[in-house]
Amino acid sequence: MCSSVLPMTDISALEVPPAGTEAFFGAAYPAATRYAQHLATTGIEWGLIGPREIDRLWTRHILNCAVVAEFIDDSDVVGDVGSGAGLPGIPIALLRPETQVVLIEPMERRVEWLKMVVEDLGLDNVRIVRARVEELVDEEMFTVVTSRAVKAMTTLIEWTHEVMGPDGRILALKGASVEAELAKTKKLLKRYRLSQPKIHIVDGGILDIPSRVVEIVKK
Ligand SMILES: C[S@@+](CC[C@H](N)C(=O)[O-])C[C@H]1O[C@@H](n2cnc3c(N)ncnc32)[C@H](O)[C@@H]1O
Q1: Is the CB of 149 under 6 A from ligand 1?
Q2: pLDDT score of 170
Q3: Average pLDDT for residues 87-95, to the nearest whole number?
Q4: What CA–CA distance (Å, rounded) separates 22 from 60?
Q5: Which single residue of 43, 79, 148, 199 could bond 39 by disulfide (Cβ 3.0 to 4.6 Å)?
Q6: Domain extents for the chain?
Q7: Domain 13-217, what fold?
Q8: CB-ligand 1 contact for 133 (6 Å cutoff)
Q9: Which Pfam families does the annotation name (predicted)?
């Protein structure tokens, strides 16, 4: 027996999705379930998600991110900055199969995992770019930039204002301290001709603890 081999994650601990999840995802529910299983197994074994997250994978991660999709149109081109394990990019791609979603992630191992999962889920609308987002100026242009748990709003604005087209939007999933973060963005909003941030509290009709989505629009 080789003791260095990682133990396989006990998938029986995977959170049961809340009532209404199947209806929420509709035709994408089987793929969403498979994505949850990937996160709970190889996602944990490869270090993309912490083992303690397994009993809140649906509520705190997949659904917490999926509710952003209500702000996204079929014609959008979404750049998910610091996608990590595909959050929020993969739930968006599942719910918006006509929307192009680009997962931007610099770390090689994470990119390898994303490639494996995106292929397995058959997500034809997803492209994976291994890069830091600030390296993509003049290479990529998005109508929407999404982000969760990557950097403070000031850094996110500095990194992304040049990869957003006219009327481009930032949709950032943020925690309770968002007001303090936003207070530091005033000069940047003016400098880069961005709108005042709107904070949307979204439960998608399914979450007990709603997500906080900060929306900033390029004027
Ligand atoms: C804490 S993880 C969050 C992952 C995912 N968004 C989530 O909510 O679970 C932050 C991710 O941002 C990536 N990252 C760090 N700097 C970046 C940059 N300059 N451009 C794009 N991604 C970056 C990291 O490699 C990491 O995967």
Answers
A1: yes
A2: 98
A3: 98
A4: 17
A5: 43
A6: 13-217
A7: Rossmann fold (3.40.50)
A8: yes
A9: GidB (PF02527)
How far, in Å, is the centroid of ligand 1 from the Cα of 1? Answer: 36
Which tokens is 91 given?
């739930």
| Among 4-8, 87-91, 92-96, 102-106, the least confident range | 4-8
Flag whether pLDDT at 2 surpasses 80.
no
pLDDT the model gives residue 196: 97
Q: How far is CA 139 from the centre of its chain?
A: 21
Q: Does the Cβ of 85 fall within 6 Å of ligand 1?
A: yes
Burial 76-86 (b: 16+ CB within 10 A, else e): bbbbbbbbbbb
The DSSP letter of residue 4 is: T
Give the integer Cα–Cα distance in Å for 98 and 41.
28
Q: Is there an atom of ligand 1 within 6 Å of 174 CB?
A: no
From the CA of 129, how far away is ligand 1's center (Å)? 13
Residues annotated in the binding site for S-adenosyl-L-methionine, as ranges?
82, 87, 133-134, 148
Residue 197 Cα, ligand 1 centroid: separation in angstroms?
22
ipTM computed for the complex: 0.99
Nearest to 42 by CA among 116, 105, 106, 150: 116
Under 8 Å between Cβ of 54 and 13: yes
109 Cβ below 6 A of ligand 1: no
